[in-house]
Amino acid sequence: GLPMDRLGHPPHEEMKDLSMIPAMAVAI
Asked: What is 2-25 written as a DSSP string?
């Protein structure tokens, strides 16, 4: 995926990437 945005959240376009790495989403 791409680097997190200024708010520290993944861009909407990267939302699909979170399905592959849910652990990272939770870490944030």
From this structure: PPP-TTSS--GGGHHHHTT-HHHH
DSSP assignment, residue 27?
A: H
The pLDDT of residue 10 = 60
Q: Are 2 and 11 in contact (CB under 8 A)?
A: yes
Rounded CA-CA distance 10/4 in Å is 5
Give the number of other CB atoms < 10 A from CB of residue 6.
5
pTM, two decimal places: 0.17
- Exposed, middle or buried by CB within 10 Å (0-12, 13-18, 19+), for 25? middle
